[in-house]
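Each letter names a residue; the fold follows as tokens. Both lines appear below:
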Amino acid sequence: MARTAEEVLAQAVQELAPDTAANRLVPRIAAGTAPREAVPAFALEQHHVIRGDRRSFAHLAARSADRPAVAGFFTHLAGGETEALDRLGALTAACGLDDAAVRAYEPQAGCQAYPAYVASLALGAEPADVVVALTANFAAWGGYCATLSRGLRTHYGFDDAACGFFDFFAGPDPEGEALALAAVRAGLADGTFSERLARRHGRLLQEYELMFWDSLDGVSTAGWPW
């Protein structure tokens, strides 16, 4: 029996969910035991991640211009990254970082492996496969953001504006979900979708996601210009 887009996405989210014990940093922020310096480190790295992902999503949308259902998903994501970048400014400011500090910061390779892989997918992967991989990853990322939003308010004194970046990703995105389903349906209908490759991309995205958190956990703040 042919699988539906709903089945493909639901199974990918379930099977690619990371081990709850794998991420060391997020639970520590949730408990208030992580050093406060982890928060500005996160904000500085995210300035690079968000800009890189936005370019990648725009390129995937352009590559899918002849398939509106697929292009629509990536156009939506690119727009979301623009809003996320706007919200990131409040978190950066709450950390005491100005524009000069953001420009001066040198990103860590382990934190930037994720957007580098997304850029690689944008160049050569089948876009419908990338939709499934990203959907699975976003499920984990949204959970992390919800946890961080609560922890930063409770233990670190960050206000609603500063936590707006996390709230944005933690909240529901019914339009994005509908667009993901439409994109996968298109890939199934025209035969371009490969579940094997989508799972591979999704597995690697989850591993690079954990690399981000592990690298962030070990970032030294000595000499940072804030």
Q: What stands out?
A: The longest helix spans residues 127-155.
